[in-house]
Design a protein that fits this description.
The chain has 215 residues and is α/β, with parallel strands linked by helices. It has a single domain, classed as P-loop containing nucleotide triphosphate hydrolases (Rossmann fold), CATH 3.40.50. It contains nine helices and five strands, in the order E-H-E-H-H-H-E-H-H-E-H-H-E-H. The protein has a five-stranded parallel sheet, with helices on both faces. The protein starts with a strand and ends with a helix.
Length: 215
């Protein structure tokens, strides 16, 4: 049975880069790794609707905090069996975003904190009702909003067909979301968390040494 490890953080925080580093480091140590990312835009109709709503389609759907959160949650619910199989067959399953992203962004949109009603609603929906697998570790890649925004802008310029959505372009929302993420990490919401300074180059080897070698 493998470990489920989630990387969380703002848009442009460097989650994919950290996942690449962790995968390489774990591979050097003989650990098998399965990776996935949420939302699954190319695999799930709920994620497709999310992407379209974030770019202004489907009327007022994008403005509905709970409506969008349900779509995000249904995307993950559809992946439960795949996640369970991956956990059974791999030493480490690395996820780019998971349930905490739904909690953080929705709470930020509603100007609530991690102790607010929305975060509890997400927990009841995704954890209690849908029964999503519990992470063994959640990693918060914490970066200043301006750094994350600069990286997101660079990605938009250099990656074909990559256009920032309404959430990514809202600096105030990103600022509030970062605060909720830090609160979730401090409270070890749902499972253990560790916080990594993402302003520079995170030390993948140190993360593996400290957290991922008991697989």
């Amino acid at each position: 049975m493998g470990r489920l490890v989630v990387i969380e953080g703002l848009d442009g925080a460097g989650k994919r880069t950290l996942a690449n580093g962790l995968e390489q480091e774990l591979g050097r140590r003989g650990r098998s790794v399965t990776r996935a990312a949420f939302p699954r835009y190319a695999q799930d109709v709920h994620a497709e609707l999310v992407a379209e709503a974030l770019h202004g389609q489907h009327g007022d759907l994008g403005s509905s905090v709970y409506g969008m959160a349900v779509l995000y949650a249904l995307d993950r619910r559809g992946a439960i069996e795949d996640l369970r199989r991956a956990i059974e067959s791999s030493d480490v399953v690395l996820l780019d975003r998971y349930v905490a992203s739904n909690a953080a962004y929705g709470a930020a949109r509603l100007h609530q904190g991690a102790d607010g009603e929305f975060v509890e609603w997400v927990r009841q929906l995704e954890v209690e009702r849908f029964g999503l697998p519990r992470p063994d570790l959640q990693i918060l890649l914490d970066v200043p909003v301006d750094v994350a925004a600069g990286r997101a802008q660079h990605r938009e310029r250099t990656e074909q067909h990559r256009r920032r959505d309404n959430f990514e372009s809202d600096a105030d929302l990103q600022q509030r979301c970062g605060q909720v993420y830090r609160q979730l990490a401090a409270a070890h919401w749902w499972s253990p968390w560790t916080t990594v300074d993402g302003a520079g180059q995170p030390n993948s080897a140190a993360l593996v040494e400290q957290h991922l070698l008991d697989t």
